[in-house]
């Protein structure tokens, strides 16, 4: 470590081999060595000793709606990436919709990258979008560096991003499989949604009934069948219905290439506790019952669910009306995701190593960034979060960096205070202070 510029030392460093006291040597933004805790610090290197706070790899959040450009009153790269940094996230991958333009052509990707470049406090990558009419654009987008393609099987909530019917899904997936890409899918079946009871109004139970589990289960079955037929690689976004888990396990056992994510809100909030009219809890698919939540945790523990991502999808407060049928659907949780998941994970007997696996290692693998991100290991980017895991705080919306401070977590007491966040060996956030943006724009590794 003779050429190290920085040494980060902690009694609890989370590495792929487990948690141990260590000194992490950093040169040129890269981890050069993971050494014993008492390793001598070379002359000229700066020592940052965080004591008993935990040093963990920066989180990689592969599901964030930044909405920039176009709906920047909802969020934006400046605010989203600051919130990410405040919450220990060092890489985010932006969803292709809710921005204007959506990321559905190479030209649109160019526009998005230009907007993000000067505002990124953390590293930012992009998903492309698969629409009914852009099959011809998919290969070029893949070659331009998007990490994969998002599609909806039911209406997305914005007119400029229409969903795919079964034939269109088959066509898009065949094209994506042909160039070895990844399709990520919002899996709710439109016919089951149309057949579900719809009352509108402020009752959460009515909203829940309008987005039934079988809509998810059927769409997941559709996706699995297509992935199997085409030998394609697919990813189920924001799984909420635990009833879909058995078919996912069965598909995996058969060798179908399907991965699955879920979100902090499905793991930490329950339908039983959502107050009527509280549409800050509205998202699609919805937050379900506590018995469902138990099964999601079980699936995380046994590996059926690969990873946990925020699906941070904010809007302005005025769109969060008390009518669940018409309120904007999306939960804002970027800055709070680590603490929310850790609080509940610990209660259920999981370790921080598990949380790191779900929120950093596996998400980095999902997008093929695991040569650079997702672990404290030699050769990876020196991206870290320093966490006081036993310290608690009560969520005060005013303390959030999100552009809009509407959050379902308001007033909750959470464990896990992020003391500082580091990107390529530079401290980018600590105690509510931030450096100038130092994030890079990331592209899929060919
Ligand atoms: Zn989403």
UniProtKB/TrEMBL annotation:
Domain Amidohydrolase-related: residue ranges: 54-426
Keywords: Hydrolase, Metal-binding, Zinc
Any Pfam family hit: Amidohydro_1
Entries under InterPro entries matching the protein: Allantoinase, Amidohydro-rel, DHOase/Allantoinase_Hydrolase, Metal-dep_hydrolase_composite, Metal_Hydrolase
Pathway(s) where this gene product acts: Nitrogen metabolism; (S)-allantoin degradation; allantoate from (S)-allantoin: step 1/1
Enzyme class, UniProt record, top EC level: hydrolase
Required cofactor names: Zn(2+)
SUPFAM superfamilies: Composite domain of metallo-dependent hydrolases, Metallo-dependent hydrolases
Superkingdom of the source species: Bacteria
GO MF terms, alphabetically ordered: allantoinase activity
Its EC number(s): 3.5.2.5
Subunit structure: Homotetramer.
Family per similarity comment: Belongs to the metallo-dependent hydrolases superfamily. Allantoinase family.
Name of protein: allantoinase
Organism: Streptomyces broussonetiae
């Amino acid at each position: 470590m003779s050429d190290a510029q920085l040494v980060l030392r902690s009694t609890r460093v989370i590495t792929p081999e487990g948690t141990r006291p260590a000194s992490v040597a950093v040169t040129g933004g890269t981890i050069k060595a993971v050494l014993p805790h008492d390793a001598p610090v070379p002359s000229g290197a700066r020592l940052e000793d965080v004591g008993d706070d935990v040093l963990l790899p920066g989180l990689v959040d592969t599901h964030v709606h930044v909405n920039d450009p176009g709906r920047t009153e909802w969020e934006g790269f400046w605010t989203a990436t600051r919130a990410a940094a405040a919450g220990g996230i060092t890489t985010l991958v932006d969803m292709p919709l809710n921005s204007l333009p959506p990321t559905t052509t190479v030209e649109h990707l160019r526009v998005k990258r230009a907007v993000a470049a000067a505002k990124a406090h953390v590293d930012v990558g992009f998903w492309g979008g698969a629409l009914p009419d852009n099959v011809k654009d998919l290969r070029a987008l893949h070659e331009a560096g998007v990490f994969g393609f998002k599609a909806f099987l039911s209406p997305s909530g914005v007119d400029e991003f229409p969903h795919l019917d079964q034939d269109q899904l088959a066509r898009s997936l065949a094209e994506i499989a042909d160039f070895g890409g990844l399709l990520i899918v919002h899996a709710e079946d439109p016919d089951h949604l149309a057949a579900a009871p719809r009352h509108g109004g402020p009752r959460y139970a009515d909203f829940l009934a309008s987005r039934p589990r079988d809509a998810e289960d059927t769409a997941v079955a559709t996706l699995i069948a297509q992935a199997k037929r085409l030998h394609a690689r697919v990813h189920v976004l924001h799984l909420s219905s635990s009833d879909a888990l058995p078919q996912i396990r069965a598909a995996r056992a058969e060798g179908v290439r399907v991965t699955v994510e879920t979100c902090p809100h499905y793991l930490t909030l329950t339908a039983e506790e959502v107050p009527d009219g509280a549409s800050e809890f509205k998202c699609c698919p919805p937050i379900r019952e506590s018995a469902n939540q138990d099964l999601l945790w079980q699936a995380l523990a046994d590996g059926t669910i690969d990873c946990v991502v925020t699906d941070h999808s904010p809007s302005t407060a005025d769109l969060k009306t008390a009518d669940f049928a018409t309120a904007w659907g999306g939960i804002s949780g970027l800055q709070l995701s680590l603490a929310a998941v850790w609080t509940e994970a610990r209660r259920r007997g999981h370790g921080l190593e598990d949380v790191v696996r779900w929120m950093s290692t596996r998400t980095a693998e999902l997008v093929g960034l695991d040569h650079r991100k997702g672990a404290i290991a030699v050769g990876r980017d020196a991206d870290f979060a320093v966490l006081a895991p036993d310290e608690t705080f009560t969520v005060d919306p005013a303390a959030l960096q999100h552009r809009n401070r509407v959050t379902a977590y308001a007033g909750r007491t959470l464990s896990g205070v992020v003391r500082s966040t580091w990107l390529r060996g530079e401290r980018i956030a600590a105690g509510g202070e931030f450096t100038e943006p130092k994030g890079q724009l990331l592209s899929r590794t060919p």
